[in-house]
């Protein structure tokens, strides 16, 4: 019974915070899971990876504390392709990432940077599919002086960002609506991809 409730809570959180990555609109999203809210998360994490990995959807624990898990939800092929793009890979190299890594190596390196710093590393935006120019702008401005802020802090190309924000909102609303009507994440995404 408790695992069923935890699964439903987890799926609603995924719908709210990770819809664009689940739908393949962006390579990844992140979500913070409080251990007190989902005490059975470690078994749910394994269960969802077992069910969803074959559909290219993965759940990776970036950081664990005594109170929470920081999870990256990602499309493996999409994320690797994005990270190997010319601009993104050049910026990752400047941040100390070795060349031509496998996705697990990229995530382990990122996880290590999260765990060795108090603040999230600036390059997290690259993993989440934010425009390189905005990741550079964020770093240069130390998170201040953005044009707009919603899903990320925008420093360039406001119109394109607004379009993407609207797309993310529509995706989130559609997925959450389906979840409220009784669908499950595993049903939705295994049927879509199969």
SSE sequence, one letter per element = HEHEEHHHHHEEHH
| Main β-sheet, spatial strand arrangement | 1-3-2
Q: Counting H and I runs of at least 4 residues, what is the number of helices?
A: 9
Integer-rounded radius of gyration: 17 Å
- What share of the residues does DSSP label as strand, in percent? 5-15%
Number of DSSP-assigned strands: 5
In angstroms, what separates the terminal alpha carbons?
Answer: 29 Å
Query: What characterizes the major β-sheet?
Result: 3 strands, antiparallel
Shape: globular
Low-confidence stretches: none
Mean pLDDT figure: 92
Helix content: 55-70%
Q: Helix- and strand-based class?
A: alpha+beta
Task: Describe the overall structure.
By secondary structure, the protein is of the alpha+beta class. 57% of the residues lie in helices and 14% in strands. The strands form 2 sheets. A 3-stranded antiparallel sheet has the order 1-3-2, sandwiched between helices. It starts with a helix and ends with a helix.
């Amino acid at each position: 019974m408790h695992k069923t409730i935890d699964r439903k809570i987890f799926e609603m959180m995924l719908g709210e915070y990770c819809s664009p990555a689940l739908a393949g609109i962006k390579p990844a999203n992140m979500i913070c899971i409080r251990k007190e809210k989902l005490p059975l998360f470690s078994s749910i994490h394994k269960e969802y990876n077992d069910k969803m990995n074959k559909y290219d959807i993965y759940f990776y624990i970036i950081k664990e504390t005594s109170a929470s898990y920081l999870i990256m939800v990602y499309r493996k092929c999409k994320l690797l392709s994005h990270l190997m793009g010319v601009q993104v890979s050049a910026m990752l190299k400047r941040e100390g990432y070795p060349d031509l890594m496998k996705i697990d190596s990229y995530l382990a390196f990122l996880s290590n940077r999260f765990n060795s710093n108090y603040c999230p590393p600036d390059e997290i935006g690259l993993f989440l599919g934010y425009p390189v120019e905005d990741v550079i702008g964020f770093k240069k401005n130390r998170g201040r002086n953005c044009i707009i802020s919603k899903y990320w802090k925008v420093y360039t190309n406001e119109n394109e960002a607004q379009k993407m924000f609207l797309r993310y909102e529509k995706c989130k609303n559609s997925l959450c609506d389906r979840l409220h009507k009784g669908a499950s994440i595993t049903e939705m995404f295994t049927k879509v991809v199969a």
